Amino acid sequence: MAAQQNLLEKKQSVNRPFKLFDFLYKYGTIITIFLLVIVFTAANPAFIDGSNIVNILRSISIVTIIAIGVTISLSVNGFDLSVGSTASVANAIVISMFVWYSQNLFTALAAGMAAALAVGLLNSALIVKMKIPDMLTTLAMMFIIQGVALTYTKGATITQNMIMPDGSYATGTISPAFAKIGQVPWIILIMIVIVIVVHIFLNYTKHGRYMYMIGGNAEAARLSGIPVNKYKMLAYLLSALCAGVGGTVLAARVMTAEINAGAPYLMDSVAAAFIGLSVLGAGKPNAFGTFIGAVLIGLLQNGLVMMSVPYYAMDIVKGAVLVFALGLTYYRQK
Amino acid sequence: MIEMRNISIDFPGVAALKNVHFQIEKGKIQALIGANGAGKSTLMKVLSGAYDHYRGDIYFNQNKVDIRTPKKAKELGIQMVYQEVDTALVGNLTVGENIMLEQMVHQMGKRQWINWKTVHKEAANILADLKVDIPTNRLIQELTLAEKQMVVIARAISNQCKCLILDEPTAPLSQNETDELFRLIRLLKEKGVAIIFISHRLPELFEICEAITVMRNGEIVMAEKTEITSPKSVIEHMLGKSLGEQYPLRKPEIGRTVLETVAFSDGDIVKNLSIHMRKGEIVGLAGLVGAGKTEICKALFGAAPKYSGEIIIRGKKEKFQSPADAVHAGVALVPEERRKEGLVVSESVAVNLSVSVLKRLSKIFGLIQFQDEKREANDLINRLNIKTPSPDTKAESLSGGNQQKVVIGKWLAGESEIYIFDEPTKGVDVGAKREIFQLIADLAAQGKSVLYASSELSDILGMTDRVYVIYDGKVVKELETASTNEQELLYYSTGGK
Predict the structure, then answer these.
(1) Do B94 and B202 fall into the same domain?
(2) A13 with B303: Cβ contact below 8 A
(3) Which residues are CB-contacts of B459 (< 8 A; sequence separation ≥ 6)?
(4) Looking at the partner chain, which of B301, B343, B370 has a beta carbon nearest the beta carbon of A217?
(5) Does the residue B488 lie in any domain?
C-alpha cells in the first residue's frame, strides 16, 4: 500500500499543472535582467559594451558585499538594519587610520574590521541576551553607530591633506596598495570571492544548514540540539563583517570618508537580498540570489542613468523594485 | 440537513477526496474518523468553504448550494472549530469581545460606536445559555485551553450556527474538561444543531455520537449507526485490515542506572523531582494534561530556562545549559508539539532527519557529504516506513504520523542512549501508532533507556516497565506497571493519596 501511495503521489507531482506564478517566481528576476539588457541596449548600444559591463559590476560590488551580510542575517530569520552605518564606521576608521594616524595598510584594515565586529558583537548580545527583536535592535544600533561615526569624524569629511581642528594639515597618506582594492579588477574579484564563499558556507556546510534550520523554526532547531544562540551570534558577526568589508572597499574606492557614506547602501542591499529570495525558486535567503538581485538593481541604475533619468529619481525606482520583490515573497507565502 | 454528493478534490502530493458522499441530520451528532491523511480534514474544509476547486455538489435542506468561500459557509450557519483554538481568538481582548467578534465586525452597519454594556451582556447571555461560567471581562490569554474552546464554541453559536464541526476538540483536554465539553455538545444537539465530531478517541465517539463515518485514503469506507457497530469494526475499517495486538511484546532486560535526578526543579512547575532510568527500561510518566509532564521532559533535556538540583548520567554529574549539552550527553527528546518544536517544516525530510548527525556527515570546514546524507535519510525512511514521495519532499506535506516518524528518526541516526518521548502518539492514527510503539520497544531492546510521557493511561500500561505518576509537577507515586491498572493510575493522577 505504501508503494502504491508513493507512486500515486509521484504521479500527481508530475501531472502538476503549469503555474505561471510559480514560473515567474523562479525565473522572473533572471528574465527581467535579460529584458532590461535588451531594452537598454536598444535605447543605447553602448550599454552592452564590455567597459560598461565592467562598470556595472564595479558599481554593484559594494552593494553586493553588504547585501551578502544582510542575507546571512536573514538566513537565521533575523534582519540587520545596521549594515549601512557599520559600513560608514569601517570607512571612517580605515581612512582615519591612514590620514590621521599614518598607520600602515595592515593596521588600518584590522582596525576597520575590529570596529565592524564590535558592532556585530553588540548587536548579537542585545538580540541573544536581552531578547530585543532583531529589527528593533539593529534599527536602534543603526542610529547609534551612525552617531558614533559622526562623532568620530567630528562631522567632517576625512581626506588626505585635510585641515585638522587645530589648523594644521593632516600628514598621513593613504597606501597605494589600499587604493588598488577599490579598482578593477580587485573590487570585482573581492565581491565574487565573497559571494562564492558565502554561498558554499550557507548551502554546503553544516553551519549554513544549522542557520537555515534556525531561520525555519528556531524552537525545533533548539530542541534538535543546535546551539541557536551561538549561531545567531555568528550570523550577526558575519553580517557586520561583510558590512565592514563593504565599508573598507568603499573607502578604497572613494579614498575619503564622507559622513554617513555607507547609509545609502542599506536600502540597495536589503532590496538585493529580498530579490534574491526568489531567484531559481530558492525560497530562502541565498548568496547567489542576492548577487542576482544586486545585478538587477545595478543594471536598472546604470541603464536609467544612460537614459538620462535624473539621479534624484533613482530612489523611486529602487524602492519600487524592493516593494515588488517583497510583494513576490509575501504573496507567495500566502 | 446537509448532503455532500460526489465530492472530489485533487492536490499534488496529498491524499485527495474521491467521490465522497457525506450527510448530516439536524440535531444529530455525527462522528468522522480516519487515519491521518485519510481526508477527513479536507472534507470538512470543503464543507466550511476553505477550498474552491472541488468537484461535486453540496445540498443544504435539499437546496443545492455553492460553498466556495468561508463567508458563504458561515452565511449558511456552518461553523468549524479547529483544533488550534488560539488561532481563532484574539489573546489580548476579553472573552466578551471575542464572542461578539463577528457581530462587532460585520453587523455594525453605519454605527461607529461600540456599546460595551450590550456586548458584554449579549456575550454573557450566550455563555449563560450554554451554562458556561466564564466572566466576560477576562482576557483570553488568562484562560485555560478548555475555557478557550468553550469561548470559540460560544462564538460559533452566537452566529445562528446550524452545523458545528469540531476538529479533535478533546485531544488536549483532561477528563473533567472533556465531560464538560460533552455536556455542551449535548445541549447544542437539543437545540437542533447538527454536529460533526472528529476524534481519534474511540470510546468518546461511542459515548456521544449517533452515527460514525470512517474514511480511508480519501474515501468513505464505512457509515453506520453507532449502536450497530463496534470499536473493533471501526478500527478495522480505519486500518483496512483486522486489528492485531496493539502493543508490541517485550522481554525487558534491565541493566544499570543510566540517568538519575536528585531534588530536580525548574523553579516553576517541576518540583523536587527524583527519578531514575535504567538501561533497557521504558519508564512511564503518567499524569493528566497539565500535570507537568512536558515541563519535566523539557527540563531533563536542558530546555527549561533554569533548573536546580542534579542530573546524573552514567554516574557523572551533568550541567545542561541548553539542549545542545543534553544531546552531547546522549539525551534525545521527541517533543509534544511536533510541528512547532520537532520539525523545520519548510525544510526537506532528509534535512530534518540528518540534523542530529550533521557533525558526523560533514568533513573539513563542515562541508556536508550530500551522498552520505541522502543514503542515511533513505535508510531511515525505509526503516521507519515513512510515507514520503522522496527524501527531498518538504516535511510540511507529510501527514501527522509520518511527521512524527521523522522527528523520531532524527534521533535514531545519532548515538543517543536516553530517549524522552512526550506524547509521541498524540494526533497519530492507529496504524502509525502501532509502528511508533514498535520503534520504542526496539529502542529499549537495543539497551537504550526510554522515558515515555503520556496522558493515555492505556498506552502507559501497554508500553512501560515502571511508572511515575505526576500530579502538579511532582512525582506522587512510583508503580511497577505489571502490578497496576488504569484505575490505580487515574486515582493517583487526579491527586489521590
Answers:
(1) yes
(2) no
(3) B247, B425, B437, B452
(4) B343
(5) yes
Helix (H, G, I), strand (E, B) or coil at B88: helix
Cα separation, B29 vs B208, in Å, equals 7
Rounded Cα–Cα distance for residues A63 and A291 (Å): 9
Tens digit of pLDDT for each residue in B297-323?
Answer: 999 999 988 888 989 999 899 889 899
pLDDT tens column, A158-184: 998 888 888 888 888 888 999 999 998
Q: What CATH number does residue B474 fall under?
A: 3.40.50.300
Q: How far apart are CA A184 and CA A253, in angstroms?
A: 10
Residues 6+ apart with CB under 8 A from A247: A86, A87, A88, A89, A90, A91, A94, A112, A116, A261, A262
- Residue of chain A nearest B13, judged by CA positions: A9
Neighbours of B142 (CB within 10 A): 10
Residues of B in contact with A209 (CB under 8 A): 351, 355, 358, 368
Mean pLDDT, residues A282-311 taken together: 90
Q: What is the mean pLDDT of residues B79-99?
A: 86
More confident site: B80 or B400: B80
Read off the pLDDT of residues A248-274 as tens digits, 9 standing for 90 and up: 999 999 999 998 899 999 999 999 999
The per-residue pLDDT for range A106-162, each reduced to its tens digit, is 999 999 999 999 999 999 999 999 999 999 999 999 999 999 999 999 888 999 888
Summarised one tens digit per residue, pLDDT across range A69-98 is 999 999 999 999 999 999 999 999 999 999
User: Looking up cell 445540498, which residue turns up?
Assistant: B59
Binary contact (B12, A225; C-beta < 8 A): no
- Give dist(CA A93, CA B21) in Å, integer: 74
Q: Is there a domain that residue B246 lies in?
A: no
B127-130 long-range contacts, Cβ below 8 Å, gap at least 24?
A: B127/B95, B127/B99, B127/B154, B129/B157, B130/B154, B130/B157, B130/B184, B130/B187, B130/B188
Nearest to A2 among B335, B355, B385 (CB): B385
Set of chain B residues whose Cβ sits within 8 Å of the Cβ of A206? 358-359, 361-362, 366, 368
Query: Could you tell me which chain A residue has the CA closest to the CA of B340?
Result: A220
ipTM value of the model?
0.81
Q: Closest to A9 (Cβ–Cβ): which among B13, B347, B368?
A: B13
Same domain? For B224 and B301 the reply is no
Which range marks the domain in which residue B436 is found? 257-493
Nearest to A205 among B344, B368, B387 (CB): B368
Is the Cβ pair B12, A5 closer than 8 Å? no
Please give the pLDDT value at position B497.
Answer: 67
Kindly list the residues of chain A whose beta carbon comes within 8 Å of any beta carbon in chain B.
1-2, 5-6, 9-10, 12-13, 15-16, 200, 204-207, 209-210, 212-213, 216-217, 219-229, 283-284
Please check whether residues B89 and B195 belong to one and the same domain.
Answer: yes
pLDDT at position A7 is: 42
Between A212, A225, A283, which is nearest B323 by CB? Answer: A225
* Highest-pLDDT range among A201-210, B8-17, B304-313: A201-210
B248 located within any domain? no
Please state, in angstroms and rounded to a whole number, the distance separating the CA atoms of residues B66 and B58: 7
State whether residue B90 sits within 8 Å of chain A by CB. Answer: no
Beta carbons of B274 and B264 less than 8 angstroms apart: yes
Could you tell me if B418 lies within 8 Å of chain A, comparing CB atoms?
Answer: no
Please report the sign of the dihedral spanned by the C-alpha atoms of residue B216, residue B221, residue B223, residue B227: negative
| Number of structural domains chain B divides into | 2
Q: Supply the pLDDT for residue B101.
A: 84
Q: A210–B358: do the CB atoms touch at under 8 Å?
A: yes
Report the C-alpha gap between B36 and B300 in whole angstroms: 30
